[in-house]
């Protein structure tokens, strides 16, 4: 049986979707699917209760917002110092994390990582694919950026 070439259609649709996609107008979604649990940062989240209170409950609150609201968030920052949640060029990741990011092939697909502020010092770092924040690292002390 001869192939009809239909296998190319999903990739074409995906490409068209990406080209026409507007992050700012979409609802924030997140996943731990690609999380790097072995990273030392997750050691700072020692208990299930701490994980639930510090991370899961805050992520659930973000789920009610559009990306534009998250990107515009500036509470807790001194005036003139930018937004709490922001994209950063992946090349600026700390050395060890940058090596992992490259080895996993993420650097080829994502030029930027996203820093999501959970509290004054706590951050989640990952990449955004369409409107999904793929959490990679937990930065309890705001040491990444």
What order do the strands of the largest sheet run in, or round the barrel if closed?
1-5-4-3-2
The helical percent reads 25-40%
Secondary-structure element string? HEHHEHHEEE
Q: What best-fitting shape do the alpha-carbon axes yield?
A: globular
**Computed structural class:** alpha+beta
- Low-pLDDT stretches: 3-7
- Helix segment count? 5
Quaternary structure classification? single chain
What portion of residues belong to β-strands? Answer: 15-25%
Average of the residue pLDDT scores: 85
Radius of gyration: 17 Å
The count of β-strands is 5
Question: Which sheet architecture does the biggest sheet show?
Answer: 5 strands, mixed
Distance between the termini: 55 Å
Description:
It is a single chain. By secondary structure, the protein is of the alpha+beta class. It is 32% helix and 19% strand. The chain has five helices and five strands. The protein has a five-stranded mixed β-sheet with strand order 1-5-4-3-2, with no helix packed on it. The protein is globular, with a radius of gyration of 17 Å. The N terminus is likely disordered.
